[in-house]
Amino acid sequence: MLDVRRLRLLRELALRGTIASVAEALAFTPSAVSQQLSVLEREAGVPLLERTGRRVVLTPAGRNLVRHAEAVLERLEQAAAELAGTRRGLAGPLRIGTFPSATRTIVLPALAGLTDRHPGLEPMVLEIDPAAVGGALRAGELDLALVHAYDFVPVPAEPGLAAEPLYQEPMFLASGEEGGEKPGPAAGPGVPLEVLLGRWRDSPWITATLGTLCHAMTVRACQAAGFAPRIRHRVDDFAAVLDLVAAGQGVALVPLLGAAGGPPPAVTLTGLPLRRRTLIAHRSGAARHPAVTAAVAALRAAVPGPVVPGPVVRGPVVRGHRDRPDA
Hints:
The chain is α/β, with parallel strands linked by helices. The chain has helices at residues 4-16, 19-26, 30-44, 60-85, 100-117, 133-138, 193-198, 213-224, 238-246, 290-302, and strands spanning 49-52, 55-58, 92-98, 121-127, 144-150, 161-175, 204-207, 230-234, 252-255, 268-283, 313-314.
């Protein structure tokens, strides 16, 4: 009989490529992962792995077993959801992943509604970059999570996970006071990105830290406008980013929720033809788990109404950012 826990390890190895990365993601030692995979090979009765240097490649039999493992793990999630549905009331921990700009605007209001309706639940919030959410969900460290995607940085499909859209919001260029030497282009419908961003090609830029989706979004947007940004600061908190812009330290791209409290007086926000989309991710098969269903309903109810990011705004402000996420 094949062990489900070892099948999880094989699935992660198929995704990550090295035993060391699987061990790091799942809080095992590399020797423990190797030992468990060797046991799985004995259970299967055929070679599942081929070692090439530091990397491990799955054999055709190993790849086929991973395909079956995905189906087995999804069915187990469905079974757990059905069992949970037979219990009276919701209780126990519910681990929710989120990113900073969604924490205060969506997750906190959702927690209030969730605990009012289901006092037995114990929501536990973890701020995590969307790039790391997949591994945390598959490892069982999270039950669901908010992830975001940008026009130039879509969310890649990951085995074992499912996602549903929550909302979308516009993006802005945050810049300091212009001084009047070179008036900027008037932002409006049809103004191309290379015009809106090209003016700032020689300016210092403020991005998120390397490896995050927000960092990739800024770099790719600038590349689409015909230049590579000269990055001076790497900061993940959008409030701090706006303060740096106000201090004359550079320009930055920020989403609507990142500026929802209003930018500093010296900061101008220029509307861009870019969007950030937020999705709710969970393990495949867990969509009907009562706790996940309750959390999704609370998150949807907490999506804010139209938010205008302060009085100093140049260019279009999309007021209805609760548009259909697929619009």
